[in-house]
Amino acid sequence: MDFAKTLIFWYLKNKRELPWRQKKDPYHIWLSEIILQQTRIEQGLPYYLKFINAYPNVFELASAPLEHVLKNWQGLGYYSRARNLHTAAKYIVEELDGVFPLNYKGLKELKGVGDYTASAIASICYHEPVAVVDGNVYRVLARYFKIDTPINSTAGIREFKALARELLDRENPGDHNQSIMEFGAIQCKPQQPLCDTCPFSGSCLALKTGKIKDLPVKLKKAKVKKRYFNYLVFLSEENKTILEQREGRGIWEGLFQFPLLETKDLLKPEEIFNDSRFLEMAGKEVREITLFNESPVIHKLSHQHLYTRFWLIEKKELDGEGIPAQQLKEYPVPVLIANFLKEYDFTY
Question: What is its EC number (predicted)?
Answer without folding.
Answer: 3.2.2.31
